[in-house]
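Bench notes, afternoon.
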Amino acid sequence: MDIEARLEYIIFENKANHYVVAGFSELKTYHNFTAAGRIEDPIEDQEYVLQGEYVKHPKYGEQFRVDMVKKKLPDNSDAIIHFLCGENFPTIGKKTAESIYETLGENCLEKIHNNPELLHEVPNLTAKKMLIIQKGIQEFTGFNETYAKLLKYGLSPRQIQMLLDTYDNVLDVIEEDCFKPYYEVYGFGYKTACKMASAIGLSNEDPRRLDAYIYELARQLSMATGNTYITFATIFQNVRGVNESLIQESIDRLVSLQYLYVENTRIYPFTLHEDEVTIAKELKNHLFEVESVDVESKIKQVEFSLAITYDQEQKDAIQLFFDRSFMILTGGPGTGKTTTVKGILEICKDVYPDSKIQLCAPTGRASKRLAQLSNCDSRTIHSLLQWNLEDNSFGKNEEDPLDIDFIIVDEFSMVDTHLFAQLLKALPQRCRILLIGDEDQLESVGPGKVLEDLIKSDVIDTVHLKKIFRQSSGSGIVTLAKEIREETTCHYEDGVEFIERTTPKIMDALIDYVKDMDLDSMQILAPMYKGAAGIDEINRQMQVLFNPKSPQKNQMKVGTTIFRENDKVMLLKNLPDEDVYNGDIGTIVEIDSKQNVISVDFTNAIVDFSTDFLYYLKHAWCISVHKSQGNEYQTVFCIVDVNAKNMLEKRLLYTAISRAKKQLFIIHQTYLCFINNNIELKNKENMKTQVLSYNYNREHIKPGILHIGVGNFHRAHEEFYTNLLLEDPTQQDWGICGAMLLPGDERLYRILEKQKKEYTLTICGRDGKDQTYQIGSLIELIWGIENPAAIINKIADKNIHIITLTITEGGYNIAKATNEFMLDNENIKYDLAHPQSPKTTFGFVAEGLRKRKAVGNGPITILSCDNLQHNGNTARKAFLSFFQAQDPELAEWATVNITFPNSMVDRITPSTQPEDIIRLNTQNGTQDGAPVYCEDFIQWVVEDKFIAGRPAWEKVGVEFTQDVTTYENMKLSLLNASHTLLSYPAFLSGYRKVDVAISDERIKKFVRGFMDIDITPYVPAPGNMDLDLYKQTLIERFGNHTVSDQVARLCFDGASKFPVYIMPNLIQMIRDRANLTRQAYLFAAYRHYLKYKTDDNGTRFEIAEPWLTATDDILIASNSPIDFLSLSPFQSTELKAADEFVELYLQMVNAIKEKGTMSTLESIL
């Protein structure tokens, strides 16, 4: 929309990027409003035309978002003539101005601005004067054609400003190569470049797209692995579906443009090769002879003045510093690195009184700690090198080096290759270097393992301090760190306390321990942000505990976070101009809600954060282990949540533990021991794998959920989540009452009743390690054949707020052909006629709800937990159809009093065979007649539409949303579709187990290519989901041999799977003229499977396709392969009309028949 308005006052202006927040008033209505956007040189009282729309800002409320702006041109005769006679229009006199107005009329200036060709209608106007008028109007309005065009390309004002600051003629650059800014402009990302490429119509086949993809892949792989280079083999492996010769050509182009560097088989992204060369060259320059100084007597003086005694290792380290120009000092916590450095500094000042000694560290907090212990100037490396945030350059370099004689760098394990190269370039050749670090800590986030590589090179003299100096308090911390480093048995003593809690109990234990502690000396560390014991939830609870809401404290909501005066916060971005850096922790001292400013005291500086800068802050009572590196705290609480598998890695845990100086609390449900560099969780009593029991009292649990269909999946999924939740005393009204309706349920019912409804669930890890839980959340159990009235009464019970279902897809009784509820089903007809003696789920629920309605026990939620798309909508259709047919009054009541949320469920749970029962009981030392086992992955996403209340399942990992569709699409398009994709080729190739099939690298490459190339472009990642991680997890899940599925089960009922899992994305791919090779191969394999019923080894098999019609059977039997494309499951589009698909499909049909399934697959990889 366009608004004509006067700029009344400027609220905020950033002159660097022209971002302005200002108050405006509409010219026609005099409506006052706030607008924000890019306005060059704003002038108060000037009239503007604003293009944009009103938006609801999460922090500032409603405001007008300015997309484009121009000054409003005069529109009446006197003002127009006066304007055209002004200084912007030399040689244009009053007579010419009057002629223009008389010819073109009112609003003539706006008309000229929109269409300069109109000037040709003005009599006697020369071409030169036309140009002057056109240019003058454009300069006055401030209209920028380049800016407008870039906006249409989908770029943000900040991205546009980056381009305008870099290139003189942006449009020419983009026309030449729209990916050039991605390579050359710091902060201009790959996705933005791709968006711009699509906007300008760059062909999908244009090689520059592949170039940019490979460049991005090289960067991402380098960051992910920590390596400064990747190999050609790695690139070929990760670029699927593209011929290796095309990949090689792309790399050659990138090398010729100097965006990549290639050395033998190594590919270096960024400037990493140049950085490595720089490091090698500068190391050589800084290895020089120095005049030896005997410091033995000096060491004694230091010992006396500091009242300490050095051991021989430390003395040797001090002496080596004065004998060498470059050395490394390394050691774990408690080994005396700090004390040794103190001695070096004291002696250095004495021996070289005129020398300039500079201390530095990668983080602000580590730098401050270094300064405090040394009484010397210490800076962050970025600050020392005068880093420019805007273009990622450094003010100090070989042309303008630092004026120093000695440099000491602490926490050097955190320094990556690029930063070290820049530091070395900025050092004068006379400068001597000491690097200090702990080689067992986490490596740098950026590429390179610099400290480890320098030590291994044997080029730099290194002293490893090993002896631990025990202190009166906290000595157990350094002992534990040493045990972790050396992978020996762990002990918890002398300052270390192990607090054993299950995940739901972690928060309560944490609050009990920290509530009386000194905040300034205590830090909580956790491995992940989400979850019941994640960083975000801990910070929310700590704010309630330590800094609750008060009328005396101002607060401000930023996104979903509430900041309050006195909050402990962390900075997430480097702000070198303010001398504060990523990871610095401070306290909010003031919040100005009117100006939207938060002031934070970082000890060395108070920094004001306004507008977008507010997103640079995060609460910091609890922080990640990576953020803690380089810091030390008197007391550390280390949260090792069982759900955070990434935490269970030696370096991460070692780093977390070694942050503590005097007290360390580890909160987890099991002790720790080590096997081959991995941390294994063991029970503390006997270090044998045991069943993890619940801690709640089942006698205090009340059923709030009735579940119909108590099968293995339900017991591994909903009951598992609820079992964890019931540990929370506030959630103990949400036990589960199970309802079994079928005659075949009797065996399981009898076993569970005998076991007091308890059973064991063994979760089988992808790493081969299992964890077993005793599940107690099933509080009551009813078998409908024996006691149908009890189920009906339970549905009517006012304490039951939710009915959950796992009754399988067929249990909803929806006809596939019509998508309508089948009232002619024999059991349904019986229930319609005999409401008081039901047989089906629908009959039981209807009778129970009738009773509930009659006694006024209120609304209820019916939650489907079956693995089908839009399961809540399906349940709604089925139940309301039945109610309408049996009892219209009940149907009317149900539409108001029942909600049917959709949910997405995921956990592979095989059926338990007799041999599985023996195996599980032997493994767990149990006598369970109904054990369940499942994979270690679990997911449950539920629409938050519960009319009668719900459990706080989000506390144990369930995700609530308003619309589950994106999660469903992700799962259907990636997991389910990939299962279908591998099923028929794998089965025809002779594979019968999924884990064995996916271990075949050809099948794995085929499936991953399908995920990455065919599906990902059409499946947006929901929420904060990492789609690449999800896809990798799927491959790992398919390969989990403990819960491996039968390939034959995946092949079953393909007619139901193709319309849901395959066809929707295929239709889009055909529309977009995408590569259809994998889809064509799948259809050909499916036809071969159905038609010939013989695998490539000659083994005959039977097919199970209950929904194929007689017409389908004729089409399958036809000798014309193209007839198969008219099968009923494919009716959502006319496949025969897709010429490219048909051509590929026919090729695949012939190839599979002549060469076999696997040989054909090899030809398309």
